[in-house]
Amino acid sequence: MALKVLVISEEGFSSLSGGGVLKRNLFGMNGTFEILSLEDPLDNQLNVNCKKFLVTKYIIRSRNLPLFKYIKGAKNKATHKSSEKSNFLNLVSKKIIKLIVGNASHPTFLKKLDSKILKIVDDFNPSVIYTTLGSYGLNQLVISMRKRFDIPLVVHIMDDWISATNTYGLFAFIFGWAVRRQFKKILSLASRLYVISYDMKIEYESRYGFEFSVLHNGVEDTRIIQNQKKIDGRIIKIGYVGTLLANVQLNGIGDLIKAMNQINQVSADYKFKLFMYISPSSFEYTKSVISESDTLVLKVAPSGDDDYYQLLESIHILFLPAPFNTTGFNYTKFSVPAKLPSYLASNSRILGYGPAGSTQIKMLPKEFCTIVNIESVMLLHEALADIKNALISGSIGLVEQYEYTKNNYSLNKIQCKFHNDLMKL
After folding, report:
1. For residues 149, 150, 156 and 161, what is the CA-based torsion angle, rounded to 10 degrees?
2. How far apart are CA 76 and CA 129, in angstroms?
3. Is the distance from CB of 246 to CB of 211 less than 8 angstroms?
4. What is the domain partition of the chain in residue ranges?
5. Do 3-60+106-218+410-423 and 221-408 show the same overall fold?
6. What is each CA distance from 353 to 32, 65, 349, 357, in whole angstroms?
7. What is the pLDDT of residue 142?
8. E-strand spans in 68-141?
9. Residue 218 — φ and ψ, nearest 5°?
10. Are the C-beta atoms of residues 324 and 376 closer than 8 Å to each other?
11. What whole-number distance in Å separates Cα of residue 55 and Cα of residue 10?
């Protein structure tokens, strides 16, 4: 008999976000789960294999309230160039807003739940609640459902957002206190706590005093290949797939483009070409900060699995950047991209670029991945040149990568462990 699970999250079972892909894979075993998903999707996403109910109307977003609209307008105005006097006033205004608001996350609040949503959940009669958490309002929904049904709560944390936001500014200090208090309450209510990496497990057990288990994404065995990549037409394809954010991936991509162009300018034979497949949520932003050229192609990331794995197979080098800047590093230092297993499964050469303390960089095996731990265009240049020579000579051995991926990221093994864990609650 299938286990009934109530899923509560900001996103659905989606191919367009890392968290969505991970949830879809975890619950993907046929006949093992019956799912009702309460979602507050921020994007138009693909949802599969579950009943869904959008909770958007129950979540009040602060960004739609007059006060926050005024603050946003003041921020925009402060960046607008005009007269010297106006610039001075705008600068003062910006400083004051930064002092008051700081890096506060946009607060959301939960409205009173009406009979419609309660009847839907009552009729479903779940045995377990699973959540990846989200905004303050969505987390209140998690607490409300946990108290109403008094059933096991499973919490899965993928980023250290709790310590990376609401850290400075008057409002951030006040709201941050409420967010962290709520977070600790949810941890105390949970029957099972998952994090995305071993480093995060160690940190969270020390920080919060609860036991955490590691649960990351996997890849189907049939998707793991061991074919040697061939270079056609003297073009070496570099690929980046996923979201592009200013404080996370942008600087790394910028350094890669510089290094790639430097080699192309002096290379008389093989040329590098960068293919960027960007998630819909950040595609317009990417177009505003990165321009296409003869050696750079921008496309929306495919939503279908077959198209996704086909494009990975066509790429010689897959780029995995982690932020060197303090803000981005603190937010992602324990994170593991959902795409990492599929990157490894493609048997493309992976080029990791990020600080040694970043978990996603540490998880790249040095035996068959190229890693640059120092923020340097010159070192990226040298790394690309070395990979280029290895690809041309056919000296990149990929048997180890195939075996490693199969042993450590088999989706079937991960799904079975997850299902067994939930059945024991």
Report:
1. 90
2. 41
3. no
4. 3-60+106-218+410-423, 62-101, 221-408
5. yes
6. 39, 40, 13, 12
7. 96
8. 108-110, 128-133
9. -135, -175
10. no
11. 9
Q: Can you give the pLDDT of all 425 residues of the chain as single tens digits?
A: 789 999 998 877 776 677 888 888 899 887 789 999 888 665 445 455 578 878 877 887 755 544 444 444 544 444 444 445 456 555 655 666 566 666 666 678 888 888 999 999 999 999 999 999 988 899 999 999 999 999 999 999 999 988 877 676 777 778 888 889 999 999 999 999 999 999 999 999 999 999 999 999 999 999 998 777 777 778 999 999 999 999 999 999 999 999 999 999 988 789 999 999 998 889 999 999 999 999 999 999 988 889 999 999 999 999 999 999 998 999 899 999 999 999 999 988 999 999 999 999 999 999 889 999 999 999 999 999 999 988 887 766 667 888 899 999 999 999 999 999 999 99
pLDDT by residue (tens digit) across 125-158?
999 999 999 888 999 999 999 999 999 999 999 9
- Which of 192, 197, 196 shows the shortest CA–CA distance to 211? 192
Q: How far apart are CA 387 and CA 303, in angstroms?
A: 29
Tokens of 377: 């265009």
Phi-psi category of residue 288: left, alpha or beta, with phi > 0 → left and psi -120 to 50 → alpha = alpha
Q: How far is CA 419 from CA 60, 210, 214, 412, in A?
A: 34, 21, 14, 11
Domain 221-408: what homologous superfamily? Glycogen Phosphorylase B; (3.40.50.2000)
Q: What b/e string do you get for 234-268 counting C-beta neighbours within 10 Å, with b at 16 or more?
A: eebbbbbbbbbbebbbbbbbebbbebbbbbbeeee
- The CA-based angle 366-370-376, given to 5 degrees, is 125
Helix ranges, 274-376 (H): 280-289, 305-313, 326-332, 340-345, 359-362
**How many angstroms from the chain centroid is the CA of residue 219?**
16
In CATH terms, the fold of domain 3-60+106-218+410-423 is: Rossmann fold (3.40.50)
Alpha-carbon distance of 241 to 279, in angstroms, equals 8
**Strands (DSSP E) found in 20-110:** 33-39, 51-54, 59-61, 108-110
Q: Which residue has the tokens 């970043």?
A: 358
Q: What is the pLDDT of residue 31?
A: 76
